[in-house]
Automatic annotation (TrEMBL):
Annotated ranges, domain PucR C-terminal helix-turn-helix: 240-297
Domain of life: Bacteria
Pfam families with a match to the protein in the record: HTH_30 (PF13556)
InterPro entries registered for this protein in UniProt: CdaR-like_regulators (IPR051448), PucR_C-HTH_dom (IPR025736), PucR_C-HTH_sf (IPR042070)
The protein's name: Helix-turn-helix domain-containing protein
Length: 303
């Protein structure tokens, strides 16, 4: 409008003056746009912060076994009859290790994408406490058993989308329960995640049925201590432990283990022979492999 008013009365002789005025108008427009954007972002962050604080109250109440209804009312959400409880471990986005990008900014972007995906999946009723390395999320479900069986594909799809959108590796342990059992389900999902990471499983989401044997081996007790003790002879030989882990991760193939370790297969053979001497269990003997693998799981989980 200002430019139109100027041009309606300007002559060719006024060109320099029109340009100078237009520059002032653009400067004002820039200042106004920045002020409006700053105010919008500040207000949006304040509202988002209040909403997240209220949702954290609901999450805390569920984790502590308290009635979440009053906190849910303040948060404007409905407590679900049951939840799928996921514990996440998140890898870095490439930008987080790029010297040309501020790592904290890249981490916040990654986290916002993950939160948005979880909120969309939970139809704005999900609860989460996440940081760039991982955290906890509660997804409302109708039936805990169905969530981990009939609806399993939908849950695995969520974790795949989180990985795709965030550009990071995603490992997750999951347990499902009625609202009263959230605390125990959170502990179980964290235990599952620890097993998944210790045993070198690929990114994805895992139930207890996916790690059943290793989960049982991870329970404290005399059996776990005895199994872990079978590898006591390797404690002073970290290279042999690393080789054994690679051998197990490579499905007991010395060539795959060599590839994981970036060494010659003959080096793997030599190290496995040393493992056999120090433990009394031969990694190349099929009869010793189940006990050796169980011992490794018990040892790593007890470390």
């Amino acid at each position: 409008m200002g430019l139109d008013a100027l041009l309606s009365k300007a002559t060719p002789a006024d060109l320099d003056a029109v340009i100078q005025v237009e520059r002032h108008l653009l400067d004002v427009l820039q200042l106004v746009s920045a002020a409006v954007a700053d105010a919008y972002v500040e207000e949006h962050q304040a509202l988002h912060g209040q909403d997240q604080a209220a949702r954290h109250e609901v999450l805390s109440a569920l984790l502590e076994g308290q009635d979440p209804h009053e906190a849910a009312r303040r948060a404007g959400i409905r407590p679900a009859p049951a939840y799928a409880v996921l514990t996440f471990a998140l890898g870095d986005h490439p930008d987080e290790t790029d010297s040309d990008v501020t790592s904290s900014v890249a981490a916040r972007r990654k986290l916002r994408r993950i939160q948005a995906e979880i909120d969309h999946h939970g139809r704005a009723q999900a609860l989460h406490a996440l940081n760039p390395q991982g955290g906890l999320a509660l997804l409302p479900v109708e039936d805990p058993e169905v969530a981990l069986t009939g609806d399993w594909e939908r849950l695995t799809g969520l974790v795949v989308r989180i990985g795709d959108r965030s550009g990071a590796t995603v490992h997750a342990g999951v347990a499902a329960t009625a609202a009263a059992g959230i605390a125990e389900a959170a502990r179980q999902s964290a235990d599952i995640l620890e097993i998944v990471r210790v045993t070198g499983r690929p990114p994805g989401v895992y139930r207890v049925t996916d790690v059943l044997l290793d989960y049982q081996l991870s329970r404290p007790g005399a059996a776990r201590e005895h199994l872990a003790g079978l590898l006591a002879g390797l404690e002073r030989h970290p290279v042999l432990l690393e080789t054994l882990r690679a051998y197990v991760a490579g499905e007991f193939s010395r060539r795959r283990a060599a590839g994981l370790l970036h060494v010659h297969p003959n080096t793997v053979d030599y190290r496995l022979r040393r493992v056999a001497v120090l433990t009394g269990l031969d990694p190349t003997c099929p009869g010793d492999l189940p006990q050796l693998r169980a011992a490794l799981v018990a040892y790593d989980l007890g470390a």
